[in-house]
Design brief:
The structure holds 2 protein chains of 2 kinds. In chain A, 76% of the residues lie in helices and 1% in strands. Chain A contains 17 helices and 2 strands. Chain A has helices at residues 2-28, 34-44, 51-60, 67-79, 93-128, 133-147, 150-165, 184-221, 224-231, 236-242, 244-248, 250-254, 256-265, 268-273, 279-288, 292-320, 322-327; strands at 85-86, 91-92. In chain A, strands 1-2 form a two-stranded antiparallel ribbon. In chain A, helix 5 (93-128) crosses helix 8 (184-221) and helix 15 (279-288) packs across helix 16 (292-320). Chain A is globular, with a radius of gyration of 25 Å. By secondary structure, chain B is α/β, with parallel strands linked by helices. Chain B contains 20 helices and 22 strands. The radius of gyration of chain B is 26 Å and the shape is globular. The chains are: A mainly alpha, B alpha/beta. At the A-B interface, helix 9 and helix 17 of A face helix 2, helix 3, helix 6 and strand 11 of B.
Chain lengths: 332, 625
């Protein structure tokens, strides 16, 4: 087992190296660089451009060097914890992202818990009461949630909140707390605002998870071992939690690999609509304006989270499911 | 003595698509304490529904519409199970605590993610107020009792690490750990090999005596009934046709259905000319399809149809470690050689995992052997099928076809019967659609199905009908050799006879050669003319049917034969002879059959046409088969 973990961790190194190359290639792929789009922007606004300043900046950031050298420089920086410099914000990337990261993680984690909290009871109910009115009703709601785009839901909620309550529900906290250090008042303001993005972002995920949980559980409920357990005299609720749910959990664990990166990047469009101070819109912006180090750091970070997430879910599956743990490596 | 369980005029109804289906129509019988009652009948007769009603495990769309199930519980109070809600506390107390059940499929009846110890002790902690340590100790004792060699280790194993027989033992332990007054065994050995079956039956009998419990044995195997039951209840279409003591029913069966059932069971003592009488006979017209077999010269026929020489196949289980890959060799087929004459039905018998299926795959070149050759007699020319190029192989495939074991998974549920039957013709680009339609009709007649069914999908057919569709598909290319891989083991006895008769007639009338693979000796005895016995990848004995059954020489063959339960009270299983799996361990065979690493064994002809695997120097050498 230890061998396996070490092997997997070592395997991550070449994987991430390749990812970093691809990432760098992608952020370099559009013609020009940040300075060129910066010049274009200035010129379109009718301002003059100081050629010397541009040349200085270009040299400063190493944009005049060959690509490979830029890549090595960038990668070397990352390995030392230096993620480079954001042109647009005019400060180090780590500082730009750091401020927003807390709130992003807060929103995402809250969303994930919201999803689980709602999806599990409903999924179990739907599966155990298949084709009942309750199941049909919840299924209908589920499809509705699945089919409604997040940003549309956000717009609808913004509209209704404004019309009926006269409040703006955008943002994550009342305006007076923005940029202020954390305090109890700020926290309570955040919590008051938090539920809207959580509901908006979490709805489709919840609906999807209900569907998947229901389908998985229905498969498991048919299995013979469930009858065996009933024949033992297990009460129904205990039985479902101990046997079929346990076996239906695999998909859920396997999902972690996808959930981790979405903590950082999830729901960009919704975040834009709700003007949330999270990292999603920032990343979008960085990609648009070719703010290469910021965009690159984001992409690298997401990739790392994906790779780590997959590792975590693989390890968790191994722990959870003895079939994987003990039958692994058998081949014909 | 008062009965432990008395079922009185029980009616159960299923609601299916707004219509009602009467599954049980007035079932009444008693189970006395400590006795074994066998419930006999084909699938769909209501045996399992009866058991589900007793356990309170009926599916949601089923309802008890009348009658009583009186159960004398451990306080000597009479409870009517039929009146108890299935999920009530009282019912939960009975289930697993006082009435337990074991199921047919040991492979799927246990949860794969919980340890055996967890699953066995669970019932104990549910029903008995007992300290944790003491409960675990009782669980260990129970595992010991059902024959786990190392109960401590068994507590921590998972079901998928165990063989089918061991899983069924674990199921037994789970059912018996609370010392129930009644055990319902629903086809407990149907999915197991004969020798394992005999062991489980023996164990069941022993535990029944030790725990003094009653057993309701549900089975379609009259051989099992003869060996275990005290009383027999025969069911058909939700009703009881006949009931009585074992002796009365077996010596003088009075109901025609029971008589028919007896006539449908393949036995080892029927003569070569005797036919099985199917309970549900079918009409089929074998000559519906004109076989335009090219007349073969005598010279061609003197060569074997299929000659297999020295086949070896080893599988490797990879164990990954640091910097090395240790491969554990699992020899699946070792030195297999035999010949099948043209028009001969050659039987191959052996237990699951002995390499039968690997062998059949190699004969079809679905797998490549490590060594050895398979020569196919192609119009008088012996051709090595491993040396053929793809085009030649495709042509030869028309001569060899397969009939599969599982009629449910071997037919694509999304294809109509017509598409299924003509698929081989399409693959081999034979004929146009009109010809296919013509062929399909003839083939349906051949296997006794109405050609109007051609537009239907497989799900609307019963298991036996599906198997006939599979046979029709195999015949579509007018093959010369058919490999039948356990064609009847998934079917009921009543259907089994019908399929066996069909296969036998096809073979004789069309002059087909068969390689008939089965684990059921009685089936092999009925169909095959010559028989090879396989054990752990090796053929241990090859002989004609008469020789093999009259004078089995190899200890493994003898053990197999002695483990077959026979539906005849005068030939009970000799439980003492059934060693705990020792007969299938080559190391424990007596000389000259014993297999040691240093000694080479080979098939030797001990009498004309009777080959037995022995240590090579024990008998003066004659040529190898």
């Amino acid at each position: 087992m230890l061998h396996y973990i070490i092997k997997r961790v070592l395997l991550m190194i070449p994987t991430l190296l390749v990812i970093s190359m691809v990432t760098f290639a992608i952020i370099q792929a559009p013609p020009g660089d940040y300075l060129e789009s910066y010049i274009a922007e200035l010129e379109s606004q009718g301002e003059s451009v100081d050629k010397d300043k541009i040349a200085f900046l270009r040299q400063q950031y190493g944009l005049d060097k060959p690509l490979v050298q830029q890549y090595v420089h960038w990668l070397g920086g990352i390995l030392q914890g230096d993620f480079g410099y954001s042109f647009e914000f005019d400060m180090p990337v780590s500082k730009v992202v750091g401020n927003r990261m807390q709130l992003t993680v807060l929103v995402s984690v809250a969303t994930i818990f919201f999803t689980w909290l709602i999806a599990f009871p409903i999924g179990i109910y739907s599966a155990t009461h298949q084709y009942s009115w309750g199941d049909y009703g919840l299924t209908f709601l589920g499809f509705l949630g699945l089919a409604t785009p997040n940003f549309l839901l956000a717009l609808v909620m913004l509209y209704f909140a404004n019309v009926y309550f006269g409040t703006s529900i955008g943002g994550l906290m009342a305006e007076q707390y923005i940029g202020q250090p954390w305090s109890w008042d700020k926290l309570s303001s955040v919590l008051q605002h938090l539920w809207i993005p959580v509901v908006v972002i979490g709805t489709s995920g919840t609906a999807g998870m209900i569907r998947r949980l229901r389908a998985n559980l229905l498969d498991e409920l048919q299995k013979q071992y469930v009858i065996t357990a009933r024949a033992k005299g297990l009460p129904r609720a205990k039985l479902i939690l101990k046997y079929p749910l346990r076996l239906a959990l695999n998909f859920f664990i396997a999902d972690i690999g996808a959930v981790l990166p979405s903590i950082i990047s999830g729901a960009e469009i919704t975040a834009v609509v709700l003007s949330l101070p999270t990292t999603g819109p920032m990343m979008l912006n960085a990609l648009q304006s070719q703010d290469m180090y910021l965009a690159g750091s984001f992409l690298m970070f997401l990739s790392t989270l994906t790779v780590v997430g997959v590792l975590v879910s693989d390890l968790a599956l191994t722990l959870l499911d003895p079939r994987i743990r003990l039958q692994g490596g058998h081949q014909r | 003595m008062d009965p432990l369980l008395a079922i009185d005029d029980l009616h159960v109804e299923f609601a299916i698509h707004n219509s009602k289906l009467q599954a049980l129509r007035g079932v009444s019988f008693d189970i006395p304490p400590g006795q074994t009652v066998a419930l006999v009948g084909e699938s769909g007769s209501g045996k399992s529904v009866t058991a589900q009603a007793i356990m309170g495990l009926l599916p949601d769309n089923a309802h008890i519409t009348g009658g009583q199930i009186q159960f004398a519980n451990n306080n000597q109070k009479i409870l009517d199970i039929a009146a108890l809600p299935q999920d009530s506390r009282a019912m939960q107390d009975i289930r697993g605590g006082q009435i337990s059940m074991i199921f047919q499929e040991p492979m799927v009846s246990l949860s794969p993610v919980h340890t055996i110890g967890d699953q066995v002790s669970e019932a104990l902690f549910l029903h008995r107020e007992i300290a944790h340590q003491q409960g675990l100790q009782l669980t260990r004792d129970m595992l010991d009792m059902v024959g786990f060699p190392d109960p401590d280790r068994a507590m921590k194993t998972y079901s998928f690490e165990l063989s089918g027989g061991m899983r069924q033992r674990a199921m037994l332990a789970m059912a018996l750990v609370c010392r129930p007054a009644l055990l319902i065994a629903d086809e407990p050995t149907t999915a197991l090999d004969v020798s394992i079956q005999a062991q489980i039956l023996m164990l069941l009998k022993k535990l029944q005596a030790e725990l003094n419990m009653a057993v309701l044995l549900i089975t379609h195997d009259l051989g099992v009934v003869a060996n275990l039951a005290d009383e027999v209840v025969v069911m058909y279409q939700g009703q009881i046709l006949e009931r009585g003591t074992l002796k009365a029913l077996f010596t003088t069966p009075s109901h025609p259905y029971l008589k028919a059932l007896f006539a449908a069971v393949p036995r080892l003592d029927i003569g070569p000319e005797q036919r099985l009488q199917s309970v549900h006979p079918i009409d089929y017209d074998i000559h519906a399809l004109k076989q335009d077999h090219d007349p073969r010269s005598e010279a061609q026929n003197s060569l074997p149809h299929l000659q297999v020489t020295g086949l070896y196949k080893t599988f490797y289980a990879h164990q990954q470690g640091w910097f090395r890959r240790a491969a554990k060799a699992n020899p699946a087929v070792i030195d297999v050689s035999f010949k099948i004459a043209r028009g001969e039905s050659f039987g191959l018998v052996g237990e699951s995992g002995c390499g039968k299926t690997t062998l059949s795959k190699m004969l079809m070149r679905a797998l490549k052997p490590d060594q050895g050759s398979v020569l196919y007699n192609d119009h008088g020319q012996q051709r090595d099928i491993y040396a053929l190029d793809n085009r030649e192989l495709l042509r030869l495939r028309r001569c060899m076809q397969l009939i599969f074991q599982d009629p449910f998974s071997s037919l694509n549920p999304r294809m109509t019967v017509f598409d299924l039957i003509r698929e081989p013709l399409v693959i081999h680009k034979i004929g146009d659609k009109a010809y296919h339609a013509e062929m399909a009709k003839s083939l349906m007649h051949m296997v006794g199905l109405d050609p109007r069914y051609l537009r239907r999908y497989p799900h609307s057919f019963s298991g036996g009908q599906r198997q006939r569709i599979g046979i029709a598909r195999a015949l579509a290319l007018k093959p010369e050799l058919i490999i039948c891989d356990e064609p009847v083991s998934a079917l009921d006895v009543s259907i089994q006879a019908q399929i066996l008769n069909l296969l036998k007639d096809l073979q004789q009338e069309l002059g087909l050669s068969y390689l008939f693979i089965s684990h059921n000796l009685a089936v092999i005895h009925y169909v095959a003319q010559r028989i090879a016995v396989m054990c752990q990848g090796q053929l241990v004995e090859i002989a004609s049917r008469e020789q093999l059954f009259a004078k089995p020489l190899h200890p493994y063959t003898q053990a197999l034969l002695s483990a077959v339960p026979i539906p005849d009270l005068t030939q009970p299983l000799d439980f003492h002879r059934i060693m705990d799996g020792r007969a299938s361990k080559p190391q424990s065979w007596p000389a000259p059959y014993t297999v040691n690493p240093g000694q080479k064994t080979m098939l030797q002809e001990v009498e004309p046409q009777h080959w037995v695997r022995q240590v090579s120097d024990s008998v003066p050498q004659r040529a190898q088969a």
